Amino acid sequence: MMGGGTAVDFSPLLPWAALIPLFALAAAGILVALVRRARGTAWRALGLAALALALLNPALVQEDREPIRDVAVLVVDESPSQNIGERRARTERALADLQERLSRFPDLEVRIVRTGGAEGGVGGAIEETRLFEVLDNAMADLPRRRMAGAVFITDGQVHDVPGGGKGLEDLGPIHTLLTGEHDEADRRLAVVRAPSFGLVGRPVTVTVRVEDMPGSQSPDAVVNIRQDGGAPRPFRVPVGRDVPLEFNLEHGGQNVLEMEVAAAPQELTLANNRAAVVISGVRDRLRVLLVSGEPHAGERTWRNLLKADPGVDLVHFTILRPPEKQDGTPIRELSLIAFPIRELFEIKLDEFDLIIFDRYRRRGVLPQLYLSNIASYVENGGALLEAGGPTFSTAMSLFRTPLGAVLPGEPTGEVIERPFKPSVTELGRRHPVTAGLPGDVPAGAPQGQEPSWGRWFRQTDVTPLQGSVVMEGADQRPLMILNRVGEGRVAQIASDQIWLWSRGYEGGGPQAELLRRLAHWLMKEPELEENDLRAKVEGNRITIERRSLEPDPRSVELTSPSDEVRGVDLVEDGNGLATAAVLATEPGIYRVSDGERTALAVVGAVNPPELADVRTTGEPMAPAARASGGGVHWLADGDVDVRRTRPDRDQTGSNWIGLRANGDYVVTGVSEASLLPAGLVVLLVVGALLAAWRREGR
């Protein structure tokens, strides 16, 4: 719609620097004439005025104007707290009503933005509601003079309101329509203090607090706590007080504590009745017992590798002088340390995390009873690594002792002594200990391509009785076998030449990485589990990983904090790892299950602001309303009318909200007409001078 405007414009014919002295001189002359009471002064003044007006060159200017539509922004809160009760439905009804009412104003443009969801809308934050950030994005291309105002449809839990409403004065009125009910009550569980890591086997303390809002609904409450998805343990805690709870970390890596408080008589949501803490378990020191049966080239490699790790407490014995050696050397001349057999293999055996036998053979040093103790130690949860030399194929082999019950490979009696390159088996490419080793043949490589690492020259031939063969040597014979025995684990390397890799022979090989993974697998570190389901969290993205030794086409079930269940398909990479990524739409504990295993993912902060207080309130938005002239209204009290208002008038009332009518426009055309034509000016000036002359002549 086009409009117009009329105004008088002056375009002086001379610069003001010249006009002002002339006007002053004329005014002085008229003033002198008035003082002397000279005849014809009025006519002279009229002539000079006409001449002065002509010099100012007045013109009538007519503008063709096109009005600019104002813009109103409707900000819709879609944060998780909006799912409570009737808030979501009330929000959509209010939005539809506003759209219908605002469509009646032809000079108003309406923009609708949504926030709070992870997958849609402008905002993706799920830990807190950031409505003003979304409003800023919606107005990024608008000059402030076009802003009619903004309407927030929310439960009032907004976490980015500018302090004191600063900077909101020129945005137009900011109104808030609250979607909840008056006098709501709720209970929540908060984690006051929790460590980020702790020592395995040592207690850690987590301090929790149960809060009833607005007031206590009961004197105490029951908090059920699960550790890594285990059976719940109930704790009765007082409401409104900090309560320390103590737990033992059972393993290294991620330990998840799930906590849930029983519902109160009045509850808005149970989402904030749950909390989770992720504590990284670290081992104080890894106690390793290394027993070398005899000095050899690889002994120093084992020792250097283990001593280089500051987290390893190594006890190393090398058997230099077996009991059967009788060479007549006087006892006083022997400087060897007696092997503390009883202390190591009877009294303190359970204190070791890993026992390594390096080229050990039966020589009467360890009685059968102590070897039987080691077998029991493994079955009860210990870890054993056996790296055998040529004597493993003889009658002096450890396999001919009680340890044979836990060793996965039986010697055939043959020792292969020719060059070969260790290779990872098909099963080994799916096992986390050997999958993706540096230098190995990549997946999809041409048939016959060999690893880039160096060769070994000796291997003991063994027959695998149980366990998983993850590496092969000469003629595809088993080189490394991994097995679970009872509660413990055993690894067997059928060669004593892994040290060639550490020496860099023919380019070396990934000895350090292989043995590091092997030790972690033996120590039951979660990241090295060969059949495992894990969930990792980065921001609001959950990455689901399932590792398995056999292809597994099954999908997994993802359960959200609000108990919504959905299926997720995993994509296999061909190396035993299947993955999928999903976006979390709310903070809290997500549970992933494939029917056999369960993994937990904790999304968001320990105490996310979004769930800290889910009651509907107008207090957070009150500063914005005061600074901008807007209002806060409850949808539960009835419909709210919408009006267009002048900038200098009130913008809100008891049951209505106003959107500012700025009246801005753009000029599309201009026409100009002079108010004093030249002929008229000459006529006025000459006429006035003649009249003055005539008056003076009388």
TrEMBL record:
Residues annotated as transmembrane: 13-35, 42-61, 675-693
Keyword annotations from UniProtKB, A to Z: Membrane, Transmembrane, Transmembrane helix
Domain of life: Bacteria
Keyword set includes Membrane: yes
Protein name per Swiss-Prot or TrEMBL: Glutamine amidotransferase domain-containing protein
Species for this entry: Skermanella cutis
